[in-house]
Amino acid sequence: MADLIEAPVVMTGEAWADYGLVDSGHGRKLERYGPHRFIRPDSQALWAPRQERWTSDGEFVPGSDEDGGGRWHYARAVPQQGWPLAWGDVRFTAQCTPFRHLGFFPDMAPVWDWMGAQLAGKADAATLNLFGYTGVGTLALSAFGPVTHVDASKKSVAQARENAALSDMTERPVRWIVDDAAKFAAREVRRGKRYDGIILDPPKFGRGPEGEVWRLEEHLPGLVGDCARLLDAGSRFLFLTVYAVRMSSLALAGLLDEVCADLPGKIEHGDLAVREEGPDGRLLPTAIFARWSNPG
Questions:
Q1: Fewest beta carbons within 10 Å, which of 142, 149, 191, 273?
Q2: Which pLDDT belongs to residue 245?
């Protein structure tokens, strides 16, 4: 039985060549994406900014609907088709999307590192990336063996394949699948499939390719239960992240504790955060997570 570690963990994303959190405060953040700087809203930046003035290429101004909406306002020309960035050997296109983000989630960088550490020494690890988006995590996992990448958006999967080509990784053993994540996981259970590692990053609300409705609080337990059935005592990890919900990481850990009851290893939980650049950089929390790991 996996041990539940009650003390929370903070997984901190640090700046790298193509990304940095420059400053934050008053409900906004200033970030560096390669040669461009952008301002985006962030309700968890409760403090005051450290810099008196922010200069940026553009700012996302949210709409009145708390569940979304808004638009970009540009101060300088920004390539609408995107521009190339890199994280390690993985190359991908960043661009300003209508959903306020820029085509990848930089706070996931410590998660990609952590998954690599869990798979260290394996060259044939089979992994599953549910809600895989534009594939940066998938391409990082592909260094350790075959990856199954699942997302309900044809556009996101197409972008992920383009990122694979940009990274010269088209020969990597990746299955690119447009499907509803919950339906796919349930079918994999019925097929008797097994994975060495699974990562899932479900939205608060979403729709599958055939109009399937996803509501996090309603559907997450069943999906995570199916994910646990795709693991065994020789598997290495299950990593779950959740954004923008009124929920504790302890709740996610409790769910993993239930579904992973027959597995060895340990269960941990906590926050993802990004550290501001410069001395005494503050930590800006971005999401909660729970993870099961088994060193084998």
A1: 191
A2: 76
Backbone region of residue 43 per phi and psi (left: phi > 0; alpha: psi in -120 to 50; beta: other values): alpha
**What CA–CA distance (Å, rounded) separates 179 from 192?**
19
Q: Is 267 left (phi over 0), alpha (psi -120 to 50) or beta?
A: beta
The domain that holds 141 is classified in CATH as 3.40.50.150
* Displacement of CA 18 from its chain's centroid (Å): 17
pLDDT band at 261 (very low <50, low <70, confident <90, very high): very high
11 contacts 287 by C-beta, under 8 angstroms: no
Q: Which two tokens stand for residue 95?
A: 């661009």
How many other CB atoms are found less than 10 A from the CB of residue 155? 10
User: What is the pairing mode between strands 58-62 and 36-41?
Assistant: parallel
In sequence order, the β-bridge partners of residue 83 are 94
**pLDDT tens column, 144-191:** 999 999 999 999 999 999 999 999 999 999 999 999 999 999 999 999
- Judging by DSSP bridges, how do beta strands 83-87 and 70-74 pair with one another? unpaired
Q: What are phi and psi of 125, to 5 degrees?
A: -70, 125
Number of residues assigned to the chain: 296
- Domain count along the chain: 1
Q: Give the pair of three-digit tokens for residue 183.
A: 């339906």
- Is the overall model pTM greater than 0.90, yes or no? yes
Residue among 73, 108, 77, 76 at smallest CA distance from 92: 108
The tokens of 8 are what? 């929370």
Structural domain containing residue 68? 3-293
Cα-Cα-Cα-Cα torsion 24, 58, 151, 14, nearest 10 degrees, comes to -30
